[in-house]
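Appendix B, Record 12. Input sequence as logged:
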Amino acid sequence: MTQSRPRIVLHPDFRVGPVDRRLFGSFVEHLGRAVYTGIHEPGHETADEHGFRRDVADLTRELGVSVVRYPGGNFVSNYIWEDGVGPVEDRKPFLDLAWRTVEPNVIGTDEFLQWAEREGIEPMMAVNLGTRGVEAAAALVEYCNGEAGTRWADLRIANGRAEPYKVKLWCLGNEMDGPWQIGHKDAHEYGKLARNAGHAMKLVDPSIELVACGSSSMGMPTFGEWEQTVLSYTYDLVDHISMHAYYEELDGDRASFLGSGTAMDRFIDRVVASADAVGAKRRSDKKITISFDEWNVWYLQSRFPGEQNLPIQKDAPRIIEDVYSGLDAVVVGDLLVTLLNHADRVPVACLAQLVNVIAPIMTEPGGEAWRQPTFHPFATTARLARGEALDVRVSAPVITTSAHGDVPAVTAAATLSDDGVALFLTNRSAEPVEVELAHAGAALALAEGWVMTADHEPAVAGPEHAAKVAAAHWGTYDVAGLVSGEGVTTVRLAPESWTALTGTLTRA
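Logged structural output:
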């Protein structure tokens, strides 16, 4: 790392755009223990009258989750939604080909939507465009949102739900560019199907927002071309295009892992450029925005054996239950910094997933629920990031990484609302740094702070280790010692850390 003091310039007049509350979404897929013994476990001591775990719901509320995507994910591309409604005793189990698991069909559309409604969470539904198509997608919208007097709306009413659910957000399939996806299609096949399905869905309910499938990752061989081809069919119909990205430490390359936010930043810029290129060609004033509806730290390459290597299992098997460290939590915080800095083009994002499966919340069947280290930066950002994102300018030394080239050693985002200013800072370097917050023409007074520092120990499963990491690496930031001068406040950042600060920022 080249040596110079990082400098961050912020002013209340320089803004990116509003922070949509949907930026703090999550994801519940029928995968592993996300549903069964995750959000739902009848007989658990905290279970409500519907069988949903109250302890998990309380942690979900503390996490600040605004939106939950459902039912997948890869699962949706083999899902017949009609088999998951009506009397539970009449539903038949089926083999989910995505995760090679026998799905009992105990939880389906109604159970999920009513859980989300009780918890004050906006649902984000996905339709199956892998093995199914236009008719089933339009029927599901009618089932969820239709008024009495039509076939599917009347079926919902017969199943005990009189009022429409009014689901606003709809995904047109999932990762259809991926060869692993059941019903995988090329960009032209998918673009035509998404256009036709989306058109029918909007005929049922014109008020819905549609998300077209973007690339499953920036590393896909069709990346860029996929976005432009799909949007050439769907540009006038859809509101958002999806992005998915997961990050992990590989072969001990700590510097590259800490620089993952730079990879996310470049990914967003390239998808925006691809979408805007289609809009320019169409001479359209419409701007397609991004639904970053899968993102997280996931040890996909180093820990997961691959779907094809999973044995056929039942009874909610333990799949992809990554255990997280303080280092992972710092990276999650830094990824949130990136999302906030793109608030003008990323109104929706979903941390994948909510419970047990690469999740901030873990449970034990019949036992307790607990917070993983990644819980803390997400919950703090969701609580503090309000109003509008500020256009923060960062000048910092760079760290050279093998995976991403040069990345800034310090990153920052800020939001401003009637409640005050919130600052989010990451020090990616292995040394403490002093950062100058330059606020010429504005008065900055910082009142509270929180910090997550990285650890150097392997993560261990269980609530005891998670509590140990939280005790050692998560805590308050002492703002009393901050040095403020005329238009400059100096903040000291711990090595490999993520810090959140709140206070006031007003024109001088």
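The CA atoms of residues 426 and 498 lie 4 Å apart.
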